[in-house]
Amino acid sequence: MKIMILAIFAMSLELLVGQAGLVCFGHAAFFGIGAYTVTLLTPASGPASLWLVAPASLAAAALYALAVGALSLRTRGVYFIMITLAFAQMAYFVFHDTPLGGGSDGIYLDFPPDASIGGWRPFDLGSGHTLYYATLASLVGVFGLLATVLRSRFGRALAGIRVNEQRMRATGFPTYGYKLAAFVLSATLAGLAGFLHALKDGYVNPELLSWHHSGAVLLMIILGGLGHLRGAMLGALAFTMLQEAFQSDALLGDFARHWQLPLGLTIIAFVALLPRGLIGATLRGARQ
């Protein structure tokens, strides 16, 4: 489930970085907002309705992205990167330094959302197997949605903007509107990943919005290979498995406490040896 959730998160960023050429270093803010929304809307006395909290989580991430994107997309390059990072850090400190999000300790999701419709419950998210298949369905749905979007006129316009935005403007495309729509869609899907993460762990804290979480998902899509949805999923899988391996006492003993060092060196090696990412090596092997 962790890998599937991170794959959704990675694909949402792939839409921006790999398809539109917008390097966002604050994507974790939308993930965290989605996670916090479902937790804050669930009362301590019992579960909230799934049909309320799920749309609210996605809408909260989308609304924040609309505000952030409306301002940050007026810049480009390193300025865009820094502005998105600044907005993400603002959201981080709202949850970290105020009682809203329980401070640095975070808050617990005591009850999974209730899927009842008029007294009839089609499924129970309190069941581990049900939540697993709901996450799998979300992963398949997000992949199908993004694959359809990228094959559409909208997706081709994003590809044109990535290659030469000035030429796209000259041909009459409102590039600002296209980029803003992609930014909001990407954030909404990141909010979905955050929503599923909160259900899986039953706990959220401000670290979900931190800059290093944004950096980690950026590493996933680079590791998997930019420009491919399958690469984003493959990168999430590889990153998670490497992290789990280097944190294992059985494999590394006491050195597992310093797992960031071998993980960093491994990613550097992958990027140096496979400049097109893991998906590039897979495609090259398939052609051979």
UniProtKB/TrEMBL annotation:
Its main location: membrane. InterPro entries: ABC_transp_permease, LivM-like. The chain crosses the membrane at residues 52-71, 78-95, 130-150, 176-196, 216-242, 263-283. Keywords: Cell membrane, Membrane, Transmembrane, Transmembrane helix. GO terms for molecular function: branched-chain amino acid transmembrane transporter activity. It is a multi-pass membrane protein. It is found in: Cell membrane. Pfam families: BPD_transp_2. GO terms for cellular component: plasma membrane. This is Branched-chain amino acid ABC transporter permease. It comes from Zeimonas arvi. The lineage of its organism: Bacteria, Pseudomonadati, Pseudomonadota, Betaproteobacteria, Burkholderiales.
